[in-house]
Amino acid sequence: MLDRLYARITALAASRHAVLWLAVIAFAEASVFPLPPDIMLLPMVLTQRERAFRLAAICTIASVAGAVLGWCIGSFLLEYAAMPIVHFYHAEHTLQALQDRFREWGVWIILIKGLTPIPFKFVTIASGAAHLSLAPFLLACAVTRGARFFLLAALLRRYGASIEGFIEKRLPLVAGLFAVVLVGGIVALKYI
User: Fold this and answer.
1) Model-wide pTM > 0.85
2) Most CB contacts within 10 A, which of 90, 94, 116, 168?
3) Quick one: angle between helices 92-105 and 120-129, nearest 10?
């Protein structure tokens, strides 16, 4: 099953619509979608190493644009749009804690949490709910998301062949680690 899923994601990453899907996933992940754009960025860079930094730029721009939507949801639609997302993840306490931390630490929260496996949508929605100024918010999102995606792209461009071989040989291990990191990030929300 994992081999078929990996083959499907790799095929999607090589399709003519892959860049569009990368942008859509990066945009949605910053505001409503639970899966990180790395699931598309990784295979796309592995199959197109010469375009690694272009793909990272697309991913960054789309993620920052999605972050604006998340900020707007938190700022203007908290009760109507954000709370169903928060309730879905059972993260009511987390949202309140993030709002409190945003009031105290501001953009530093974005700079730190934007690099972690914690779903970025919580950071964007909480920053809007805390009424963090939009300009510093955008700058912090661009820095942290850009750092994450460009670092991943640089590593994959440099070490792509060995990384691809490792993934293909140990797919269950890689999928398990990815699931642990993703679930760990969501569980960590309870303790933020």
Assistant:
1) no
2) 94
3) 60
